[in-house]
C-alpha cells in the first residue's frame, strides 16, 4: 500500500464495461463548475481481474513504417528532356520562362524524365519511396531586382490540376510511377494547402501583418467575424473583398484574375489578406508566407476545394501518398477535415496503405504530436529527431536525442504512435546535414565530416520510423547554407556556388555529374538498406532508450514477434568509448551484427553488456536467443494529490521489468460503465498522457479509476489500478463554464396522444416562439416525447409552457439550462423534474443472456426486496426497480448468485451477460445517430462512416441509407468494431455535408446514441448534439497568478487572444476586494484597455521575453497612479460578458516608467548635525510612517517612542522626512496592497539602504559613519588592484574560518573582523607571507548583513559531541554538526539581509550594534592594507533570502512584486537558490550600483566579486563599473578606476541565453574589463566537472597523464587520450588568458583559436583581454583541490606525489596570463573532508589552519544532504591514514605555492596584460598530450623584461620524466624554480623530472 500516498483504502465495486479507446482526441476543458484537481489517491491493488485480457492491446503498427524515402527536387536531379527547360515558352527572357542554370534561384532543367531514368540509381541505394517537391504548375518567376526568383521548387502553385511544363506532362508522371512501382518503390507528392503563388496584391501597398485584435474580419454587412470560430461551418459568413479584410485584395492585371486553377482559387475572399506572417501568434496561420497568398483554410469552400484537389490525383495517378507542406501554418480544423477524408478516399479506391504526412517545422514534440492526435494526420516529419541528431552528430551530446526518444510517448494514443514518423537529417529549407555539422563544428575536416555523416545515416536507419535521405546527401553534398544554398544539382552545374563545391568523401565538384554508386555514402546507404531488410525489428520493433550520456547513445529494439533484442550503440566522440549498456536481461549472449558479424558479449549479472564503440560509429548487437519472460507486476503511478487537472497529466506504469512488454492504459470515471482506452506503450518508460477532466463522467466529487494492463512477449499478464478523487482546484470559484447549446424538455402523456401539443418558449433562447408556432414534441425516448430549444450563449433563464392551442398542461415553468439542460414533465403535474428517475421513481433494468434463460433472474438493490426480471422486450428481460436518486448501485442475481453488478446513472440500465451499460446502443456496441432536418426532406441523405465501424462504407457513393425513422427524423445504427473509441462519420447528400466538417462520435465521452439537428455545429466544426448535452469551455481565471505584465505606465502585455469585439480592462481596488465569484471577476474600478498590436521596438528590446506578444494601451491614463497602488486584475470578457481570462498583473515596468525620476534621488539615510533624513521609495504604498526609537539598540519587540508620517513625492513615489533623529534607531511602517501576499497589510520593515543596524538586524539606525573611523582612516586609500589586475593573486577567505581556530588570537576576537588587526597572529603572518610572494589580494566571502547566522554569540549553538574522537570515516560528525547547522555561527553567507551593513556576527560582542561594527570592519580593511593585502568583498545582489512578508524579507515588503524577478505566471523565480532579484528593474539596478559605491567609499575596499553575475544585466555591471570609475582619491579616498570587478558569469535559469536581457555572462563580458571565473582550465586540471556522478574522472593534475585510477568513468584508453588532448589545450588556453581570438598550435597538431577549442560542446575561449579572466583550480564551491585530487589520483599515490600534483594544479593558474585565484588553504593542502558544498557545514568541516597542524582531511563523512551519494567513494579514502598529510607535506605545499608566485613576480612576461602582447610572445611548442610547454619569447615584439630574452615553462604531470624540445638553445634553470635544478638541458633538448613544474630562463 506504500506505492501511493492515500488517506484511506476504499473497497471498490469494479464493473467490467465495454472497452472504449480514446484516439486522436483533443484535450477537453474541465467540466462544469471549477477546474478540477486530484483529491485522495487510492490504491486499488495489483493483480489481474476479469476483463483485463480484453483490455490488453498490441502497440499500433498500422501506418507506414520502415520505408526508405528519397526526398528529391526534380529540377535539380536529372535533366531527361532539354526541350522542356524553358517550359515550352518561346521567349528567351529568363524573367519570362524562369530557366537560368547559372543562377541558383532559377530553373536548372531537371524533370520527370530525368528522374525516371535514374530509378535504377535509387533502387540500388535501397530506396523504397520517392518524395518529390511539388510538381504542379507554378508562377514561373516572382519578385523583382535582387529578390527575383523562379518557382523551380514547386511551392508557388497556380494550377493544381496540371504539372509544370518545366517538369513534364501527366503522361511522364504516369510512366515514372509505373516504373517505380515495378521496382517496389512508392511515389509521394508534395502538396501545399496553406498558400498559392503570390498573385494577390494589396491596394494599400503595405504588407506588415495586421492582427485580428486591431482589425477583425467583417462580414459583408460589417459584423465582426471570428473565422477561427467559423472554421468548417457550412454557414461560414459571406465576405466582401472590398470591406472584410484589413488589406484590400487587388490584382495587378486582368490575367491574374483567372490565373489560378481550379477557378475557386481566384476568389480573393478565400485568402486571409492580412499581410506577411511574423511566424508567431495568429499570424502563423493567418499571415502570408513570405508574400505568398495565404488561403483561408477555415472557409468551407477551401476545405471542400482542397479535398477535391487532394483526391483528384488519387484518381488520376496511382500515387502512394502526400507530404503536406507548412502544416502548422494551417488551422487544425482543416486537417481534421482533410486528412481522414484523403485517407478514406484512397482506401475506397483500393489503396489502403495511402500515407499522408505533414511538415510541422518545430523541434517541440508537444507541437508536432498535436497534429497526429488532435489534427488526425497520420504522421508528421520528425523535426525533433533532426534537432537531437544534429546535436549528437555535432559532438554536443546525446541528451537531446535521448529526450526525443523518451518524448515519443506524446504521440501515443489509441490510433497512432511515433513508429510512422519520417525521420531526416537535413532538407531543402534548413540545409543539408553536412553543412549544419560544419556550422556546429567550425574547422571540421572532411574526413571527420564523412564519418559523422555515416554515423548519422546509420543512426537514422536504425531509429524507429521512416528514414528520409535528402537528394545529393548520398554524394556528399554539403552546400553553403539553407534554402537555395541547399538545392544543388546532381547533374553538372553551371551555378558558380554549386559548381565550385567539393563534395564530402568524393573529391569531386558540382561541375560534374554526381550519380556515383561508388561514393562511400551511397554505398553505406545501400548497405544499411540491405541490413535493415533482414529483420522486421527495424520496421516494427519497439525502441527503448538505454544510454544517453555525453557522446554515447544506446537503445534497444525488440519485435514482439521474434522477441530478439537488437542493441544499437552510437558514439559521436572522436575517440573510442567503452560503455556498460543496460540490456533486456542478464546472461543473454549477443552477437555483433553491425558493422560486421562477429561474436559479442554476454550480459552480466546486472543485465548490462560492456561495449567498446569506435569513434564516430555505430555498433549493433543481436541477442542469440529470445528475451526471457520477466516480471509483469506494474505499479500504476497516478497523478499526485493536489495536481491541477487543467492539462494532460501523466499516467505511468513502474515496476515492469519484463524485457519486452506492452502497457495498455485505460480510465473510467465513477458512474461510467465503459473503459476509455488511452493508448498502448511498448517501450519503457511506460506512460501516456490523459486529460482527466475530459474523461466521460469526470466531475467534482467523482472518482476516476485508472488501470494499466501489461502483457509481456510470452503472454504473461499483469495489471494494477488506482483511483483518484476529483475535487475543485484552488482558488475557489474557478473559471466560469458556459451554458449548453440546447434545452430539452421531456414530456410524458400515458395515452400517447401528443398530436398538437407544443412547447412555447421565451427568454434566453435563440428564437422565441409564437404562441401558434411552438416546438413540437417530436423526439422519442422510452420516457415519452421531447422538444428541443436552441439557446443563446450564456443562457440562464428560459420560460416554457406546454400547451395545445390555448389548453395548457401546467403553468409557466422557468428553467436554468446551466443547471438542468434536460427536464422531465408529466401530464397533469406542475413539477419540473431534473432527472428521469425523479419523474418516474424507478430505474428500468434490461437484461440479456445468450442462452435466453431468465428463470430466477432478479435485480438486487441493497436495503430493498429483489425485483424479478419478469418483463420481456426486444432486448431480453426487464424489471422496474424503485429508485429515488442516482446513481443506483445494483446487481443481477440468478439462483441467488450475482451474475453482474454495476450502477445506473440514468433512467435505464442495460445488462448484457455480466456487463452493465448505460444504453442499449452501448450494450450492442452500436453508434446510433438520430438526424433531424427542419424541412423534413430526407431524400438521399445518407451516412458515410469509416474509422470505428465494423463494416465501413465501401465508398462515398455507397454510404449507408437510413436504418430507421421516428418523430425526430431518421436514424442510423452502425455496428462498431470491437474496442472502437467511436465512429468517424459524415452525414451528406452528394457532396453536401451536414454540418460540414468530418465528424467523430466519441462514444466514450459523448455516448453511443446522439440526436443531431441539421446544421448545428460548435466552433470547432463538431456537431452540437441536442442529446446528450454539452457545454462551452471553462474560463482561464486565476487571480493568484500574474500573467499580464506592465511594460510602461500605459501599456500592458498579456498573451491572450485579441478580438475587437471582446472586452479588456484592468480592475483595481486599493482595499484588495477583487475576487472571483460565481465564474466572474467582481470588485474594483476599471481601466479600459485597447488592443495595440504586439510588443515591438524599444519595449520589446527591454522585455525580449515578451516580444511579439499582444500589447494593450490604457485609455484612462488619469487614474494610472491610483491603480498602481492597488490590487489589480487583468480581465478579458467575451462580447457577451462571459469571463474568458483573468489574472493578476506584474507592475515593475509601469513603476519604472511612471517614476523615472526616482533613480536620481539618494535613499541612504543621511545625518547633518543633529538632524537625520529618511527617504524610502515605496510608490505603491498608501502610507509610510517612521517608527523612531532611542539611541540605544532596542529590543526586537520594543514599541516605538515616536511615529512620524512621511511625505510622499508624487513625481518619484518616494516618501521622506527630516528630524532631530541622529543616532536614533528606526523602522518603517508600510501600508498598502501586496500582490505577493494578496492582501492589504501594514508591515514593519528595516531600511533597505541601512548603514547601521541593531544586533539581530531588527532596527536600522541614523548613524554618522564619520564617527566610526579608526585612527588614520581619513588617510586610508583604496587603490584597487592597479592597472593590471593579473599582477595580483587572489586568496578566497572566509572571515570566521580565518581565525576561529587560531590560538594566537584572543578568544573573544576569533572569527571576527578584529582578528585581522592582530598583525603577528599566525593567520596574518601567513597572509603577509603570501602577499609578499604576490598572492596579495584577500577575497572575503560575504560580509554584508547575513540572514542565516545568529548574531549574538550567546545564541549560537555548537555541536554537542566529541567530534575529534570519532572515526575519520564516520557518519557521526556530520549528524552532530547537522543538528545545529542553522543555529551555529557558521555559514558561507550567501543569504543577504541588508546589503550595505557589515555582518554583525563577525563583530565582537561589544560592537554588534550601531557604528561599532562599521568601525571594526574598517579596522580590518586598514589592517589588511597595512599587511600588504588588497581587499575584495564578495557581494550578492542576485537574490534575497526570502520574499513577501517573511521575517527575513526587506525589499518585497517595501515595494511588493517589484524587486524580485517574476516568472511568466507571476511567481518569484528561484533559479539562484532563493528569491531572485530583478536588477533589470531600474530601482533594483540602482540599489546595486549605490551599494557598490557605498562599500567602496565607506570601507575603502579594493574590489568586488559578484555572485552569480550572469543573473545581472550586462548593462547593470557596466553601470557599476562606470560609477566606480568616477571615484577619486581626492574626493572619495578611492582610486575608482583601479577597483577590481569580477564575478561568476554562469549562464542558467530563467535569464539564460539572454532571454530577458543581455546577461553579464562569460562571453558577453568580453571587452568590458570586468573579470569572470573561467571553469575551462579548472575542469581540465581537476578532471570532469563539479557534478559528476563518479567523482573519479581524472584531469591533467589528477592522473589522466600516465597515472590512471581505473575508474570506469574515465572511459576507454582511447577516450582518455582524447580527453587528455582536449584538457591540454584547455590548460594552454587558460595560460593564455582564455582569449577567444588567441591562435596557437593545438595539442592535436592543428592550429586553433581559443573559441575553436571545445569545452563541453561550447567555445572554450571567450575573453578579449587577460584581465577578464580569473583562473582557478578550486574555490569555496565544490571540493577543495586537495579533496578532488584525493578522489581522482590512485589511492595508493604517495603523499609526496600528491603534494607535487597540487603544485601541478596550481602551476597553470599562477604561471598563466589570467588573474590567479586560490581558495584559502589550497596552498597548504586544505581539505573539507571531501565536502562538496560546505556552506552550512560548521567550523568542523571548514577548518582553516595556517599553523599547518591539520589540513582538515578525515573529519568524518561530509554532510549527507549534499554528499550521501558520494559516501561510497569517500569512506575508504577518509579511513586511509596515508591520505592525511603531515606538517612537512603542508609546509612543502606552502613553499611550492610561494615558489610559483615568486616566479610569477620575477618577470613581467607572466603578466603581459594585453591580448596582442600575449599573441606575440606566448606560444606552446609541441609536446605530448599532458605535457604543457609554454614559451614566453621576449625577443618578439616590445621588450618587456630587460633581464632576459624569454622564459620556458614546462609542466609535466606524468609520473615519469619527460623530454621536450625547446624552441631555442641557451636555456638555464630559473633561480627560483626548484624543479628546474633537477632538469637536464642539452641544447634544445630539456628533460624534466616526473610531476614537476620547471621554469627556464634565457
TrEMBL record:
Residues annotated as domain Glycosyl hydrolase family 13 catalytic: 71-516
Keyword Cell cycle found: no
This enzyme's EC code(s): 3.2.1.1
Positions of region (Disordered): 1568-1616
Highest taxon in the source lineage: Bacteria
Catalytic activity, reaction form: Endohydrolysis of (1->4)-alpha-D-glucosidic linkages in polysaccharides containing three or more (1->4)-alpha-linked D-glucose units
InterPro entries xrefs: Carb-bd-like_fold, CBM41_pullulanase, GH, GH13_cat_dom, Glyco_hydro_b, Ig-like_fold, Ig_E-set, Pullul_strch
SMART domains with a match to the protein in the record: Aamy
Keywords: Calcium, Glycosidase, Hydrolase, Signal
Annotated signal sequence range: 1-22
CDD domains for the chain: AmyAc_bac_CMD_like_2, AmyAc_Pullulanase_LD-like, CBM41_pullulanase, E_set_Pullulanase
The family this protein is said to belong to: Belongs to the glycosyl hydrolase 13 family.
Protein name as it appears in the record: alpha-amylase
Organism of provenance: Actinokineospora guangxiensis
Biological classification of the source: Bacteria, Bacillati, Actinomycetota, Actinomycetes, Pseudonocardiales
Amino acid at each position: 500500500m506504500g506505492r501511493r500516498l492515500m488517506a484511506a483504502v476504499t473497497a471498490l465495486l469494479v464493473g467490467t464495461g465495454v472497452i472504449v479507446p480514446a484516439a486522436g482526441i483533443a484535450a477537453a476543458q474541465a467540466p462544469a463548475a471549477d477546474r478540477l484537481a486530484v483529491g485522495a489517491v487510492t490504491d486499488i491493488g495489483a493483480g489481474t481481474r476479469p476483463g483485463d485480457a480484453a483490455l490488453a492491446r498490441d502497440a499500433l503498427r498500422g501506418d507506414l513504417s520502415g520505408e526508405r524515402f528519397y526526398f528529391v527536387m526534380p529540377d535539380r536531379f536529372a535533366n531527361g528532356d532539354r526541350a522542356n527547360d524553358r517550359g515550352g515558352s518561346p521567349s528567351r527572357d529568363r524573367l519570362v520562362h524562369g530557366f537560368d542554370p547559372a543562377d541558383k534561384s532559377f530553373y536548372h532543367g531537371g524533370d520527370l524524365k530525368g528522374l525516371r531514368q535514374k530509378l535504377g540509381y535509387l533502387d540500388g541505394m535501397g530506396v523504397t519511396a520517392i518524395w518529390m517537391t511539388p510538381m504542379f504548375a507554378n508562377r514561373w518567376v516572382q519578385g523583382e531586382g535582387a529578390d527575383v526568383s523562379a518557382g523551380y521548387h514547386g511551392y508557388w502553385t497556380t494550377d493544381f490540376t496540371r504539372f509544370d511544363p518545366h517538369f513534364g506532362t501527366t503522361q511522364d508522371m504516369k510512366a515514372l510511377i509505373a516504373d517505380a512501382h515495378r521496382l517496389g518503390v512508392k511515389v509521394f507528392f508534395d502538396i501545399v494547402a496553406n498558400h498559392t503563388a503570390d498573385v494577390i496584391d494589396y491596394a494599400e501597398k503595405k504588407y506588415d501583418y495586421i492582427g485580428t485584435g486591431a482589425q477583425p474580419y467583417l462580414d459583408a454587412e460589417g459584423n465582426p467575424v471570428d473565422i477561427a470560430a467559423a472554421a468548417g461551418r457550412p454557414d461560414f459568413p459571406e465576405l466582401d473583398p472590398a470591406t472584410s479584410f484589413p488589406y484590400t485584395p487587388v490584382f495587378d492585371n486582368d490575367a491574374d484574375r483567372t490565373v489560378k486553377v481550379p477557378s475557386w482559387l481566384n476568389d480573393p475572399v478565400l485568402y486571409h489578406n492580412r499581410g506577411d506572417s511574423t511566424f508567431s501568434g495568429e499570424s502563423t496561420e493567418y499571415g502570408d508566407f513570405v508574400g505568398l497568398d495565404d488561403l483561408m483554410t477555415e472557409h468551407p469552400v477551401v476545405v471542400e476545394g482542397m479535398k477535391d484537389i487532394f483526391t483528384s490525383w488519387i484518381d488520376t495517378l496511382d500515387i502512394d501518398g502526400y507530404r503536406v507542406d507548412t502544416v502548422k501554418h494551417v488551422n487544425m480544423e482543416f486537417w481534421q477535415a482533410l486528412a481522414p477524408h484523403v485517407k478514406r478516399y484512397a482506401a475506397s479506391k483500393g489503396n489502403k496503405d495511402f500515407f499522408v504526412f505533414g511538415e510541422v517545422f518545430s523541434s517541440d514534440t508537444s507541437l508536432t504530436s498535436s497534429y497526429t492526435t488532435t489534427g488526425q494526420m497520420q504522421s508528421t516529419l520528425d523535426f525533433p529527431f533532426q534537432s537531437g541528431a544534429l546535436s549528437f552528430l555535432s559532438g554536443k551530446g546525446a541528451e537531446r536525442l535521448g529526450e526525443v526518444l523518451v518524448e515519443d510517448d506524446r504521440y501515443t494514443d489509441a490510433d497512432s504512435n511515433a513508429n510512422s514518423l519520417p525521420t531526416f537529417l537535413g532538407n531543402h529549407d534548413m540545409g543539408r546535414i553536412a553543412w549544419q555539422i560544419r556550422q556546429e563544428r567550425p574547422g571540421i575536416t572532411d574526413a571527420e565530416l564523412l564519418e559523422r555523416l555515416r554515423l548519422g545515416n546509420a543512426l537514422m536507419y536504425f531509429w524507429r520510423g521512416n528514414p528520409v535521405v535528402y537528394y545529393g546527401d548520398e554524394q556528399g553534398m554539403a552546400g553553403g547554407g539553407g534554402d537555395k544554398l541547399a538545392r544543388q544539382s546532381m547533374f553538372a552545374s553551371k551555378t558558380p556556388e554549386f559548381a565550385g563545391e567539393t563534395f564530402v568523401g568524393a573529391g569531386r565538384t558540382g561541375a560534374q555529374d554526381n550519380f556515383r554508386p561508388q561514393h562511400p555514402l551511397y554505398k553505406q546507404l545501400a548497405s544499411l538498406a540491405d541490413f535493415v531488410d533482414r529483420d522486421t525489428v527495424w520496421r516494427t520493433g519497439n525502441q527503448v532508450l538505454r544510454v544517453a550520456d555525453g557522446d554515447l547513445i544506446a537503445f534497444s529494439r525488440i519485435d514482439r514477434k521474434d522477441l530478439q533484442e537488437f542493441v544499437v550503440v552510437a558514439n559521436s566522440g572522436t575517440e573510442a568509448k567503452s560503455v556498460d549498456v543496460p540490456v533486456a536481461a542478464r546472461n543473454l549472449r549477443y552477437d555483433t551484427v553491425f558493422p560486421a558479424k562477429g561474436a559479442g558479449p554476454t550480459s552480466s549479472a546486472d543485465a548490462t553488456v560492456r561495449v567498446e564503440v569506435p569513434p564516430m560509429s555505430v555498433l549493433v548487437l543481436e541477442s542469440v536467443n529470445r528475451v526471457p519472460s520477466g516480471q509483469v507486476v506494474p505499479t500504476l503511478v497516478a497523478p499526485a494529490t493536489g495536481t491541477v487537472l487543467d492539462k494532460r497529466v501523466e499516467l505511468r506504469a513502474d515496476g515492469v521489468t519484463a524485457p519486452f512488454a506492452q502497457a495498455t492504459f485505460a480510465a473510467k470515471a465513477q458512474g461510467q460503465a465503459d473503459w476509455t482506452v488511452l493508448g498502448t506503450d511498448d517501450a519503457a518508460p511506460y506512460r501516456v498522457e490523459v486529460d482527466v477532466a475530459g474523461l466521460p463522467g469526470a466531475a467534482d466529487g467523482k472518482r476516476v479509476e485508472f488501470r494499466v494492463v501489461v502483457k509481456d512477449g510470452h503472454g504473461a499478464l499483469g495489471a494494477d489500478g488506482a483511483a483518484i478523487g476529483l475535487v475543485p482546484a484552488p482558488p475557489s470559484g474557478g473559471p466560469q463554464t458556459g451554458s449548453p447549446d440546447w434545452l430539452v424538455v421531456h414530456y410524458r402523456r400515458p395515452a400517447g396522444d401528443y398530436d398538437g401539443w407544443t412547447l412555447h418558449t421565451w427568454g434566453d433562447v435563440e428564437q422565441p416562439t409564437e404562441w401558434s408556432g411552438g416546438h413540437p414534441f417530436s423526439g422519442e425516448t422510452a420516457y415519452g416525447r421531447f422538444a428541443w430549444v436552441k439557446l443563446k450563449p450564456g443562457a440562464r433563464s428560459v420560460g416554457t409552457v406546454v400547451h395545445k392551442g390555448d389548453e395548457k398542461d401546467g403553468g409557466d415553468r422557468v428553467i436554468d439550462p446551466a443547471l438542468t439542460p434536460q427536464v422531465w414533465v408529466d401530464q397533469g403535474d406542475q413539477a419540473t423534474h431534473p432527472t428521469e428517475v425523479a419523474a418516474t421513481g424507478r430505474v428500468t433494468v434490461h437484461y440479456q443472456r445468450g442462452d435466453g434463460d431468465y428463470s430466477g433472474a432478479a435485480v438486487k438493490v441493497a436495503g430493498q426486496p429483489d425485483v424479478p426480471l419478469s418483463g420481456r422486450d426486444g432486448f431480453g428481460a426487464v424489471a422496474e426497480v424503485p429508485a429515488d436518486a442516482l446513481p443506483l448501485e445494483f446487481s443481477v442475481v440468478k439462483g441467488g448468485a450475482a451474475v453482474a453488478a454495476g450502477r445506473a446513472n440514468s433512467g435505464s440500465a442495460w445488462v448484457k451477460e455480466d456487463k452493465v451499460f448505460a444504453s442499449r446502443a452501448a450494450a450492442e456496441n452500436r453508434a446510433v445517430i438520430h438526424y433531424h432536418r427542419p424541412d423534413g426532406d430526407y431524400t438521399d441523405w445518407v451516412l458515410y462512416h469509416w474509422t470505428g465501424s465494423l463494416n465501413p462504407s465501401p465508398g462515398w457513393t455507397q454510404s449507408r441509407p437510413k436504418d430507421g425513422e421516428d418523430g425526430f427524423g431518421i436514424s442510423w445504427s452502425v455496428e462498431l468494431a470491437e474496442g472502437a473509441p467511436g465512429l468517424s462519420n459524415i452525414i451528406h447528400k452528394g457532396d453536401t455535408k451536414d454540418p460540414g466538417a468530418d465528424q467523430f462520435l466519441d462514444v466514450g465521452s459523448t455516448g453511443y446514441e446522439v440526436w443531431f439537428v441539421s446544421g448545428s455545429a460548435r466552433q470547432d466544426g463538431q456537431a452540437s448534439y441536442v442529446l446528450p448535452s454539452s457545454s462551452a469551455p471553462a474560463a482561464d481565471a486565476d487571480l493568484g497568478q500574474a500573467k499580464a505584465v506592465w511594460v510602461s505606465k500605459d501599456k500592458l502585455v498579456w498573451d491572450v487572444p485579441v478580438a475587437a469585439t471582446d472586452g479588456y480592462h484592468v480592475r483595481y481596488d486599493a482595499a484588495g476586494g477583487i475576487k472571483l465569484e460565481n465564474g466572474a471577476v467582481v470588485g474594483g474600478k476599471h481601466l479600459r484597455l485597447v488592443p495595440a498590436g504586439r510588443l515591438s521596438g524599444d519595449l520589446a528590446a527591454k522585455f525580449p521575453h515578451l516580444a511579439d506578444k499582444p500589447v494593450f494601451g490604457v485609455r484612462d491614463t488619469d487614474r494610472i497612479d491610483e491603480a498602481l497602488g492597488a490590487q489589480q486584475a487583468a480581465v478579458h470578457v467575451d462580447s457577451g460578458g462571459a469571463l474568458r481570462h483573468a489574472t493578476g498583473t506584474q507592475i515593475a515596468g509601469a513603476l519604472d516608467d511612471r517614476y523615472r525620476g526616482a533613480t536620481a534621488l539618494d535613499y541612504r539615510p543621511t545625518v547633518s548635525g543633529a538632524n537625520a533624513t529618511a527617504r524610502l521609495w515605496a510608490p505603491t504604498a498608501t502610507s509610510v510612517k517612521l517608527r523612531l526609537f532611542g539611541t540605544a539598540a532596542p529590543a526586537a519587540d520594543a514599541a516605538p517612542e515616536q511615529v512620524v508620517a512621511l511625505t510622499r513625492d508624487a513625481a518619484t513615489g518616494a516618501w521622506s522626512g527630516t528630524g532631530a533623529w541622529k543616532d536614533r534607531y528606526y523602522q518603517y511602517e508600510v501600508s498598502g496592497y501586496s500582490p505577493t501576499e494578496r492582501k492589504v497589510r501594514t508591515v514593519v520593515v528595516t531600511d533597505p539602504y541601512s548603514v547601521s543596524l541593531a544586533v539581530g538586524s531588527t532596527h536600522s539606525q541614523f548613524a554618522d559613519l564619520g564617527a566610526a573611523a579608526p585612527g588614520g582612516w581619513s588617510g586610508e586609500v583604496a587603490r584597487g588592484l592597479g592597472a593590471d589586475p593579473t599582477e595580483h593573486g587572489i586568496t578566497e577567505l572566509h572571515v570566521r574560518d580565518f581565525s576561529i581556530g587560531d590560538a594566537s588570537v584572543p578568544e573573544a576576537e576569533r572569527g571576527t573582523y578584529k582578528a585581522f588587526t592582530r598583525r603577528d597572529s599566525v593567520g596574518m603572518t601567513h597572509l603577509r607571507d603570501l602577499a609578499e610572494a604576490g598572492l596579495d589580494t584577500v577575497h572575503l566571502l560575504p560580509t554584508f548583513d547575513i540572514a542565516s547566522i545568529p548574531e549574538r554569540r550567546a545564541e549560537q549553538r555548537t555541536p554537542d559531541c566529541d567530534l575529534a574522537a570519532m572515526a575519520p570515516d564516520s557518519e557521526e560528525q556530520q549528524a552532530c554538526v547537522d543538528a545545529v547547522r542553522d543555529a551555529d555561527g557558521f555559514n558561507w553567507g550567501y543569504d543577504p539581509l541588508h546589503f550595505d551593513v557589515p555582518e554583525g556576527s563577525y563583530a565582537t560582542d561589544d560592537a554588534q550594534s550601531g557604528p561599532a561594527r562599521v568601525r571594526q570592519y574598517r579596522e580590518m580593511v586598514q589592517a589588511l592594507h597595512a599587511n600588504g593585502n588588497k581587499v575584495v568583498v564578495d557581494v550578492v545582489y542576485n537574490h534575497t533570502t526570502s520574499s513577501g512578508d517573511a521575517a527575513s524579507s526587506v525589499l518585497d515588503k517595501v515595494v511588493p512584486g517589484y524587486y524580485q524577478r517574476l516568472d511568466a505566471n507571476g511567481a518569484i523565480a528561484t533559479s539562484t537558490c532563493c528569491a531572485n532579484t530583478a536588477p533589470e528593474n531600474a530601482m533594483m539596478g540602482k540599489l546595486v550600483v549605490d551599494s557598490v559605491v557605498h562599500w567602496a567609499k565607506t570601507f575603502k575596499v579594493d574590489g568586488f566579486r559578484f555572485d552569480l553575475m550572469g543573473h545581472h544585466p550586462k548593462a547593470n555591471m557596466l553601470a557599476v563599473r562606470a560609477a566606480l570609475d568616477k571615484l577619486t582619491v581626492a574626493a572619495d579616498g578611492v582610486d575608482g578606476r583601479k577597483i577590481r570587478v569580477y564575478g561568476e558569469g554562469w549562464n542558467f535559469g530563467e535569464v539564460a541565453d539572454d532571454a530577458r536581457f543581455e546577461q553579464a555572462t562569460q562571453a558577453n563580458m568580453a571587452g568590458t574589463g570586468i573579470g569572470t571565473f573561467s571553469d575551462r582550465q579548472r575542469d581540465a586540471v581537476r578532471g570532469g566537472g563539479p557534478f559528476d556522478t563518479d567523482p573519479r574522472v581524472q584531469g591533467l593534475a589528477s592522473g589522466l597523464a600516465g597515472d590512471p585510477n581505473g575508474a570506469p568513468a574515465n572511459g576507454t584508453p582511447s577516450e582518455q587520450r582524447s580527453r587528455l588532448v582536449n584538457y591540454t589545450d584547455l590548460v594552454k588556453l587558460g595560460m593564455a588568458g582564455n582569449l577567444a581570438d588567441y591562435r596557437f598550435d593545438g595539442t592535436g597538431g592543428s592550429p586553433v583559436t581559443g573559441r575553436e577549442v571545445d569545452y563541453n560542446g561550447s567555445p572554450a575561449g571567450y575573453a578579449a583581454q587577460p584581465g577578464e579572466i580569473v583562473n582557478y583550480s578550486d574555490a569555496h564551491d565544490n571540493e577543495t583541490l586537495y579533496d578532488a585530487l584525493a578522489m581522482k589520483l590512485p589511492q595508493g599515490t604517495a603523499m609526496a606525489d600528491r603534494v607535487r600534483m597540487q603544485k601541478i594544479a596550481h602551476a597553470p593558474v599562477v604561471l598563466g596570463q589570467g588573474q590567479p585565484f586560490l581558495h584559502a588553504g589550497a596552498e597548504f593542502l586544505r581539505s573539507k573532508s571531501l565536502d562538496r558544498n560546505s556552506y552550512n557545514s560548521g567550523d568542523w568541516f571548514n577548518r582553516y589552519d595556517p599553523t599547518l597542524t591539520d589540513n582538515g582531511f578525515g573529519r568524518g563523512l561530509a554532510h549527507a544532504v549534499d554528499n550521501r551519494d558520494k559516501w561510497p567513494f569517500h569512506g575508504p579514502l577518509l579511513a586511509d591514514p596515508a591520505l592525511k598529510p603531515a606538517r612537512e607535506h603542508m609546509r612543502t605545499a606552502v613553499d611550492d605555492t610561494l615558489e610559483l608566485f615568486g616566479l610569477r613576480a620575477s618577470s613581467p612576461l607572466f603578466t603581459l596584460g594585453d591580448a596582442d602582447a600575449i599573441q606575440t610572445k606566448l606560444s606552446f611548442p609541441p609536446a605530448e598530450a599532458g605535457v604543457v610547454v609554454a614559451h614566453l619569447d621576449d625577443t618578439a615584439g616590445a621588450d618587456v623584461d630587460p633581464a632576459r630574452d624569454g622564459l620556458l615553462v614546462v609542466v609535466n604531470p606524468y609520473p615519469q620524466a619527460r623530454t621536450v624540445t625547446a624552441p631555442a638553445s641557451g636555456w638555464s634553470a630559473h633561480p627560483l624554480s626548484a624543479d628546474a635544478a633537477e632538469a637536464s638541458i642539452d641544447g634544445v633538448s630539456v628533460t624534466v623530472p616526473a610531476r614537476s613544474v620547471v621554469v627556464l630562463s634565457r
